[in-house]
Each structure stands twice: as C-alpha cells, then as structure tokens.
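User: structure tokens for this one?
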Amino acid sequence: MRFNKFYIYLLIAVMATALGCKSKKQADPKSLLVSENGRFLTTGDGKPFFWLGDTAWLLFSRLTREEADTYLEDRKQKGFNVIQVMLLHDVPSRNVYLDSSLVRANVAKPAITPGSNYKKADEYDYWDNVDYIIDKAAEKGLYMALVPVWGTNVKEKKVKEPEAKVYAEFLAKRYRDRWNIIWLDGGDIKGSDGLNVWTTIGKTLRANDPNHLITFHPRGRTASSQWFHNAAWSDFNMIQSGHRRYDQDTSKNEKLHYGEDNWKYIEADYKLTPVKPTIDGEPSYEDIPQGLHDTTQPRWTAADVRRYGYWSVFAGAFGYTYGHNSVMQMYKVTDKKPAYGPKDQWITALNAAGATQMKYLKDLMLSRSYFDRVPDQSVIAGQNGEKYDRLLATRGADYVMVYTYTGRNINLNMGKIEGENVKASWFNPRDGKTTLIGAINNKGTHTFDPPGEVINGNDWVLILDKI
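Assistant:
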C-alpha cells in the first residue's frame, strides 16, 4: 500500500502525541518568569511584572502576627508587590514569641514541632509563624523574597557547606508549592566570602524548587553578576548600590567607585551576556544616615530614594526596591540596641513620604508598552550631565521618557518615535500627576524647561508620546 508523504508525516505526529511527547508546562498565572527578551519579569499569564519591593529584613523575628498583618496590608495599599525579608538574621534566630529557629545553632536542624498548627498560638513554632506570614502575604497578592541566612553568619563560619545543603533542601521542599516565593541567596555579602556555601545554597534551591526565581543579594557597592552572572541557578542579577554619598565612596578595597550613581551598576549589567534582568535591591534607605554608621550625618530623604528609583529603572532595571531605616528593622521604642539611629517607630515610618511615592514609578512604567522599553541616552542632545545633573532616558516604540532630578533644562533629539508631532507632558514623581505641555514638532532638537527652579529634589519626568 502506498501512502502520500503528507499522511505519513501526519501519522507520525499523531503517534508522537499519543505516546506523550513533552510540551512546555503551562505556568501558574501567579508565578514569576523571566520575559522572552531576558530584560523583565512577567507573571505566568504573560502580563508585565514591575517589581516594587519593600525592605522588611526583620519582619519574621520582630513583629507579632497582628503587627505583620498591619504591615503587609499597608504595603499592599501603597502599591508594593515584593517584600524582602530574612529567614535567619542570626544563627540561631528567635521570633517575638521566643520560638527558636534552630536546634543547637545548626542550620541543618530547623526547630520543628511535629504536628504543630500555625493557627493555634500554643502549638506553632518559629517556622509555623513564618508560614503564617508568607500565607498572609499571598492573601494580599504579595511576593516574599526570602534570604535563607544573612551573610555575616557564613562569613563568621557559623554555616558550612554540608549544613547549608541540608538547610536549603529543607527550605525548598517546605515552600516550593507556594506561588509567592522568590529566593535571595546571600544577604549583604560579597559572593567571594563563602563562595562554596552560596553556590551550594543556590544549586540546592534550584534542584529542589525549579519553579521559583533565584538571585543573590550582594554587599554594598557590588553586583551579584560579579560572581554569579553565569550561574545556572541565578535567574536575574541584583545590585546593592549602598548607602554612601559620592565623597564617602572612596575605599581602596572596593572595586567600583560609583558613589550615588546606581544607574552605572544597572548599565554595566545591561551590557552582559547572556542577557539577564537586573535590579537595585538595596539603594540608600530613607531616613538612614549617609554612610550608615555615623548617626550625626545627614539622612537620606524621599527625594533621594526617588532619584535612585528613576535612575535605575530608566537605565534598564526591571523594578526597584525601596527601604526605610525604621521599617527594615521594625524599630520600636523599647528596642535597646537599634541599628543606625532610627527616629520613628516602624508603624509611623510606614507613611514616610518616599514610601507613599514609590507607587507612582510603578504606575508610570506600566502605563505604556512594557517589553519593548530600552534605555537610550541618544535621545539627549548635548551633555547627559554628571552626578545630580544627570539625565536618564528610556523609550519604547511609541514613547520617550527622560528623568531630571534637579529640574534642569532637557535638550532632546527629536524623531526617536514616529509622527510629524508628538504629545509632550510633565510627570511629577512626587504626586504622580501628569500635566500636558502640548504638541511638539518632531524634528531637530527641542529644549524643555521643567516647572520650578533648578534645585535638588525638583524632579520631573518628561514624556513624549506618539500621536
């Protein structure tokens, strides 16, 4: 019997399907994935995910359940969608209920109460309480970016490679079925300090939890890409631009001296191959002393955290993590030894100006086409500017955005998007309001003069939209 070739190929395809040829697993709509172009994150249903993180390092150890509920609801209402938190600040750690995290300070032996119930106060343990807060965050649509163990513990040899492997496997198996998990290996540490431990944790998490994103939270003024850009377990890069002023960033032992120019770290990551998303996971915190340790120094303000946010995102980052001195350590007036001289209690600091303004950045970036956005300094005519005068530009197919921190004039090369004319507007990062400038001829160069005087903190975003 002779068959037409078409029917032979059709028969082979049908048989292959019947025999179970593997197809790509359908992602959970809430899961986080790296976008196809490698620059951004998406949810499992293909929607853009702009990471707007808040730093709550000591959430699990310092707050009661009722306080944690209050904190999470506040961050949800303010537009945050990722909470960065430590599982173990110390080895061992204890929570506010005096539950210990480990047996005999061994990360390979989490202190688990058999048959415990996290709904009953007299039955739950440290890890039940962690479960409760993670699940409460999930109810509010918040992702939890979990640091397994803070870096100083590894540097001080409290965590070694064999124990780290057991601990990472415990974490992966306990939380791999929760949709709202992101893993932050490391924790304010250079990858070279305990490299084998960090590599073991990363590989073990990936082997036992293939469906959650993993990165490394590095030391100040470093980037995870310095050690782990090519690591198969690392899905995206993270920088910690740190808390120093320009004149404080002078250490001879540090490789990079970018000062406050966090956009330079993002720019460097953006050029790497293979392509991976990148983000500033710890810029200067609002109300923390400049340089951290001397509490007599000036403090970083809402204007500063806005600047770090817009600079890094316009330079190519897929999101931004905000932090506040009081909130990151959940400071209370009863604390005997708070770090870095916090002024307000955490419950008050929730409403700091910077925290209320971060949502405007997220809303702006989600208001236009998303996956085609690129950094593009070529739209700037003349000098880009140095330090606070720096202009940062980003664009999509049908729009251009330029950020100025000082309100200086913006000279633009027109014609970057199509049309005889373009619609120009001013976006205010302080209140999220947009003011129409009008239609502008889309040829040659054009100078735009932002509202107000030229002064630090009079920041604006110039937006050009295709008509």
